[in-house]
Amino acid sequence: ETKRRRRKKRVMAAISSNVKLSGTFILVVVLVGMMVLASTPTATAAVSCNTVNSQLMPCLGYVTGSGIGAPSATCCSGMRTLYGSLKVAADRQAACRCIKTLTSRFANIIKLNVIKTLPNKCGINLPYTISPSINCD
User: Fold this and answer.
1) Mean pLDDT for the chain overall
2) Cβ–Cβ contacts within 10 Å for residue 40, how many?
3) pTM for the whole thing?
């Protein structure tokens, strides 16, 4: 029986050691994970022009037309979605630069007097007027 007790003690010691080791391992993994998260930059990448373009594409017919009446519900929905997603200054500035590029590139087909009224007609208050000369800073 003493052999049996000693064997049982060794097994219990080995199990206890493994439990301590696995607990230590888990602690190390958690600490490393926390360090990785802490070193990750908190600012998100600025919004892409592809995102801006896709949200504003439904407005193309309106801003190249007469501007009489209301823009389509899809146009206004895209604008609201876009502007609602611009939470940080970097995103707002990136979107502004994309809009500035679009209005400059397509100034010959976009009616600037119509595009200036678009945010207001969609119920969006912008602190600037959409034009090829927007100051995005």
Assistant:
1) 78
2) 7
3) 0.64
